[in-house]
Amino acid sequence: MRPLLLAAAPVLALLLATGGSAQAPDTLPHDDLEWREIVPGVSFAAAYGDWEREAHGKFVRVDSGANVPLHTHSHPYHAVLISGRLTNNFADGTRVEVSPGDYWLMAGGRPHGHDCLSEEPCLAFAYGDALWDIALYEAE
Q1: Are 87 and 97 in contact (CB under 8 A)?
Q2: In this predicted model, what pLDDT tens digit does every residue of 23-69 receive, in sequence order?
Q3: Chain segment 102-120, per-residue pLDDT in tens
Q4: What residues have CB less than 8 Å from 44, skipping those under 6 apart?
Q5: CA distance 114 to 99
Q6: CA gap 23, 19 in Å, rounded
Q7: Are 70 and 136 in contact (CB under 8 A)?
Q8: DSSP readout, 91-126?
Q9: Domain locations along the chain
Q10: To 5 degrees, how large is the angle CA 105–CA 83–CA 42?
């Protein structure tokens, strides 16, 4: 249990650092999540805040076998994988496999994509201190 707690600690610290600007519910049962498909194979469910306008926390579900092409975001985000096996793929060909409990920081403007390698969907929690946007990456 200790590695999961340590992996989640940076995200928890960031959540506490929002200073209440995007109020989180006291408890949000998984069954109460309202999923919205963002692109085929990828859905979001808000935990707090509005990802299109402000600091926010959201659950991210990537379907089994889904391949999210290279893209960028204007702002960085932090994430922890909850279940499944995921790769973060980069424009230079680097692929980093992520396991449950692993934390990552994705820099704003860094081209990246994702593959869900597991038989079950990949589920992550992501936090951003600004709005979330996306632009497909086109190599020059």
Answers
A1: yes
A2: 667 888 989 999 999 989 999 999 999 988 999 999 999 999 999 99
A3: 999 999 999 999 999 999 9
A4: 35, 36, 38, 51, 58, 59, 60, 61
A5: 13
A6: 9
A7: yes
A8: TTS-EEEE-TT-EEEE-TT--EEEEE-SSSPEEEEE
A9: 2-19+43-132
A10: 70
Dist CA 87 CA 96 (whole Å): 5
CA distances from 86 to 7, 24, 38, 78 (A): 16, 26, 18, 15
Q: What type of residue is 42?
A: V
Query: Under a CB-based contact definition with an 8 Å cutoff, are residues 83 and 122 in contact?
Result: yes
Tell me: the pLDDT tens digits for 79-92? 999 999 999 999 99
Helix (H, G, I), strand (E, B) or coil at 26: coil
Q: Which amino acid is at 132?
A: W
CATH 2.40.160.60 fits 2-19+43-132, yes or no: no
Tokens of 81: 């994988």
